[in-house]
Give the backbone structure.
Amino acid sequence: MNLRQLLDRGTALSRQRLAARVLPVGIAATALTVAGSFTPWATFSGYPGKASLAGFPGGARIFTLLLAIGMVAALLRPVGGRRRAGLLCAAGIVAISLANAWSITGQGGGLVNVAYGVWLAAVGGALGVAAFAALPDDEPVALRPHWPRAVEYALLAGVVGLGLYAVVVALAIGEPSRFLSYLVFLGFAVSAASAVGAMALLPKLYNRHQPVALGLILLAGIAFPFTQNGNATWLRVAATIGTLTVAAIGLNIVVGLAGLLDLGYIAFFGVGAYVGGIFSGAGRSSIHVHLPFLVVMLLAALIAGTFGLIIGAPTLRLRGDYLAIVTLAFGEIFRIVANNLDGTAGPNVTRGPNGISGIPDLKIGALDIGAPHTVFGVDLPYFANYYFLELLMLVIVMVIFSRLNASRIGRAWVAIREDETAAAAMGINTIKLKLLAFAIGACLAGAAGSMSAHVGTQVSPESFTFIESVLLLAAVVLGGMGTIPGALLGASALAIIPEKLRFLQDKRLLVFGIALILMMRFRPEGIVPNKRRRREFHDETGGGDAMSAAPGGPVAT
Amino acid sequence: MTEQILEAQSIVKKFGGLTAVNNVSLSVGAGDIVGLIGPNGAGKTTFFNCITGMETRTAGTIQYKGKPLPTRPDAVTVAGVARTFQNIRLFPNMTALENVLVGTHCRTKVNAVSAVLRGPAFYREERASTARARELLEFVGLRRVESLLAKNLPYGDQRRLEIGRALATEPGLLLLDEPTAGMNPQETQSAMGLVFKIRDQGLSVLVIEHDMRFIFNLCDRVAVLVQGEKLIEGSPAEVQHDPRVVEAYLGTPAP
């Protein structure tokens, strides 16, 4: 036996010895965490979730308890990837307990207000990290589901239902500290599930039963207003998210598919909003014309699209960076013009900084959007009407997006993004196609803007600052460039986080910045990447799940 | 005298004070394989770029099948002149099949509206172009890797894929810029077979190459560019034994 073999045997032995200790250490870690979850976290009773009570796992303590269960599962089940899953659960426990310790310290006035339960959980989590770190790293088993159809449908329904439930819970949580704990919990729990390969199952099931999956998601979308028990708060936010999502999908065509950096996109949304406000018959409109909403929406899309063509035609002949600069300038010009077209110099169109207020609720034919309803005994505030209308709009926009994506137009856009010179050498009229992407994006933003004028009942220049453009762009990048769920998720985060974490207020941009940096480091393809981007960043070998292009095949509708 | 497919006359390209291509005329006959050789920096690729509209030429006229060739790159391809690149320029994050499908873009018609509405015409066209793309992948020998990303293909396959993509634009003339650069002898041999196969399909080929054996075995005629000027044009045998060519490559022997 030579030295090399001896050394190998030595490391194998020490690894065995370590692995033998994983179980007792892991169980000790779990026990500590569970004990921490049932013992008081704060010495004062004001802290959310009755954190001062013993024997009651309320507030953030329920999340450490759930993660502890995850840790036990990773300890006892010898599945592939359990080292990473266990590490993530344990790290989640540490993160939640420390975040709460910090928050309790802030609210109570000092570190003395942090009760021993927090420290128990934190030590338990840290011990868990140590235990799982000793396990050998292994790859998760690639699950290739082939279950009966009914089981797969039930699984999909379960996942969609769980998603809806997660959203409803998130919205129902009032206290910022608990909400943050919830977000941290979700983040770590989902990462742990993906570490054992469970998340890889979803795209497979989704691809196999696409129509069913999409139907279920739509159903969950329709069900959402019924979960709010007549409370209008979140439906109002949801109505805002709806218009933002439509705009984000439009931006996704421009940025995600064609690869054009548009830094003034909110201006097209603003053009639509002003058109929507001016022709709505609002009391404070500059002209007293009231057109039917569908006409106004088309008009808004057309006018915004025209602006897109005007901006794009000269600049899209140039490459990359010039477009970013021109769109940035356009965004500013739009805001300044909107601020000054108040009649003192030039015509009165936008009523200057006062904006157009008192925009009435929509009436489409006999349908009064401003009226609340009661369906199946559940009160639906009038915002639900906007929500449903936007859901319809969203479905239409998604069809446009995915069908364009899976056509020769979409392929040409991706080709331009990949290598513009080579695309031109393949006979693609790059200017025309870039202009098309830009104009379609502008049209969608315009249509969404006209709707947002009614949701918000007023339009004023300060809603369309550069920061809004940047945030929308951040939403698209954060969610996943080139995908619809990505745009939805990004827009939701954009609207919900500031509402939930009021204490962030002016630190909102800081948080988004940090989130973006973390994303670029750990998941550059976005939260919900499309196939192409996932492979762009993670397909080095060329093997694995080969993507079938299947052009003209079934598409998302 | 065969019918001339491409007639480039007195092409001049100046970059500021530097004349990269000086008064070069070249014609390619129907079904011909014409080679373009010369030392590094002789202006071969610049000449290609002038034909395909990647660079605006300073002077000169180009006729393709008796009509003036457009000057915008995409219009040149639509007219029927396709090219490959010296440094491979595939769409790295698209699959092999998608790369070829992009090549069919200029021969297909579906617009944005019908792509959204998806009438029967859309599906007919998509099916036709997919079938055509698979046929071309088969032709260049890449059918089995159609679902791999272009960037993950081996080097030789990437060169083949670029040729397949160019063929998808249904050209009458194919410009190959160093198709065997970086290949081993076997790969070079099979690339030669591929070029012959392309010619047998009725295409004309203009090829830049440094591999002399490749050029002299392959081409019907060879033109030599030196410092932006055409030194000589003739059959491979004539060019091979011309003392000026040897001098251009190796320099004058010491007296």
DSSP finds 20 helices and four strands in chain A. Residues 4 and 545 of chain A are 37 Å apart (CA to CA).
